[in-house]
Amino acid sequence: MRDFIARPEHGIVWISGASSGIGRALALKLAGEGYKVAVTARSHEKLVELQAEVSGLSGSIVVLDGDVTDAEDMEHAMASIEYEHGTLAMAILNADLCLPVHAEDLNRADFERTFAVNLSGVVNCLLPAIRHMKAKGQGQIAIISSVAGYGGVPTGAAYGATKAALINMAESLKFDLDKMGIRIQLVSPGFVDMPAMRKNALLTAEPLSPDEAARQIAAGLKSQAFEIAFPKRFTTMMKLARLLPYSAYFALVNRVTGWRERPSLTDHHPVTPHPAE
């Protein structure tokens, strides 16, 4: 039996974090393929601008304001889809925040903000989406993770931790969702050209454009694959590196990033004082 693949006639696609980057590009891509796309983000103005761009396309965009870190907002967004716009056929959980973390200057707020958006934000969308799809007996969910979740890298203590958690979450949920007729996929992009990602230690090659990432994801959503990972060579190398013994893994990452040779953060400016100091 083949897994459910959402088509435009099945209902609405919901994309969180759609005001910029991959989410925005994917909303335009799917609208161009005839899907009705509900988009969520905190910036109403950017979502309205996005909605205006689909004029003339075969699909459409519905603006649903909301903050993924607010569970009640996401419940309201799901209720709006269900009672005003129709059946939710696919949810693409994409909201994302990347804050570099340096051990020389750890900041609790960086961890809390990253976890709230990247991890709790996914859960806040996931729960109402699954509840709706369970009642319908079918649905498709895509969780946007990252190759940063494959293994620890410099500056990735907060971001990578959330992406590793999303990988485990998607793998674990698949066992039960398969029995419910709900298809879940994991999306693991390489580095995409967004302002926050330009500071990533592993960004040693030209990053993908959001449009190219959207093209790859849109194609993967129509496949039977559990994981949509791209570019293939880079993501495969990252997976293989994680199979190395720790001594070899740390040596490889240090060599690829040149991290050991980089000056310490404290060599440039003093660290932020702890609130108790």
Automatic annotation (TrEMBL):
Its cellular-component GO annotations read: membrane
> Which InterPro entries does the entry link to?
NAD(P)-bd_dom_sf, SDR_fam
Q: Which UniProt keywords apply?
A: Oxidoreductase
Q: Which domain of life does the UniProt lineage start with?
A: Bacteria
**Which GO molecular function terms does the record list?**
oxidoreductase activity
Which Pfam families does this UniProt record tie to the protein?
adh_short
User: Which family is this protein grouped under?
Assistant: Belongs to the short-chain dehydrogenases/reductases (SDR) family.
Q: What is this protein called?
A: SDR family NAD(P)-dependent oxidoreductase
Traced from the root, the source organism's taxonomic lineage reads: Bacteria, Pseudomonadati, Pseudomonadota, Alphaproteobacteria, Hyphomicrobiales
